[in-house]
Amino acid sequence: MKKLHDGYILVLSVVIMSLLIIISTQIYYLSFNFSSYSHFALKREKAKMLALSGVQLVRERFYFPPQEENKEKVQQTAKTEVKEKSEESKEKKQEEKKPSKPEPKKSDKELGALLARALPILNRWQSTKLTIEKDGVEGEIKTYVACEDGKIHLNNLLSLMAQKGLSEERVNMFKALWQKIGELVKANKNLYESALEFFDRRNRIWLNDISEILDAPGFQVFNDKLFVFLTNGNKDGVYLMDLFTPQSRYAKLDPWVLSASVQKLLGLKSKKMDEGAVAAIVKDFQSSHNWRNDWNKLLKPIYGKDFEGLPKGIDLMLSVRFDPAAFSVVSYGVVDGVKQGVFTILVKQLQPDGSVLFIPIKTYWIN
Known about the structure:
Blueprint: H1 8-61, H2 68-91, H3 108-118, E1 125-130, H4 132-135, E2 139-147, E3 152-153, H5 154-161, H6 168-185, H7 191-201, H8 240-243, E4 244-245, H9 260-266, H10 275-282, H11 291-298, H12 300-303, E5 326-335, E6 338-350, E7 356-366
Parallel strand pairs: 3-4
Antiparallel strand pairs: 1-2, 2-5, 5-6, 6-7
Helix pairs in contact: 3-10
């Protein structure tokens, strides 16, 4: 029979205590990491909420309530339509397709009011600080607004480039445009040829999203220049979604609302507009212009350059009527150093009651 040695209970106790210490230490570290992550996740969700709230702030700025005359027109139109349908039913007329009624021309006063709200905030970061006492959350909302009508319509540009029988002057103009873009972003390939080949490979089908052109050789230089990010927005550069758009209704640029990237391309830089300067510009506002005659009077105070100093042939690219249909918003929510951002495209929509809303149609989450 073997004799048990004294002290084995002490050794066993030490081993068990060591195991308990190891287990408890691991549990502590796991709980500590989870606690840290849960705090970060909570801040991130709050930042997301603030980022989306920034878009709503911009929508509220561009909201126009129905005017009394608009209400009366809408109500009268509705009554007329009901009466017409009733008469057709009684007389049992054959159904005929009626031509759609043209949208009533917007008054210069209404368009001037929109311009007055847009000019002070376009292409500049706006900051709104929030406090727990007033807003229920401690943080900051940063927004950057650009007008889609002040960007180059990429689909129209590619379609024009792909046309057969273009004059040498027109081809050289397109090449010069892409060469300038390539110089600004330090591209290592001919972007004109690359874009044209890419469009031909697609059988000249229009792009649904500007980011699709990143598949074209040489355009990968825009991978880190896709949006105007919060981290790069103060830098003087050119960004893909700030340069091109698929949303504009027109092939031409609206010079009232040129994006920062388009301004860089054209050698322009808009000045910061205070309320007094904006009021002077929109006073007796007219939505249609001949820019050869009107540029120096209206836009030189904004861009600091007269018409003669603009690139040759620029008047062919400029829209003669101001009537923006879409805006883009980069919005960041910042909570205790945690940032979340969105890029949203807002499109103008006339409501049945005569009010004007800008509806979000596309949103990207960005870093």
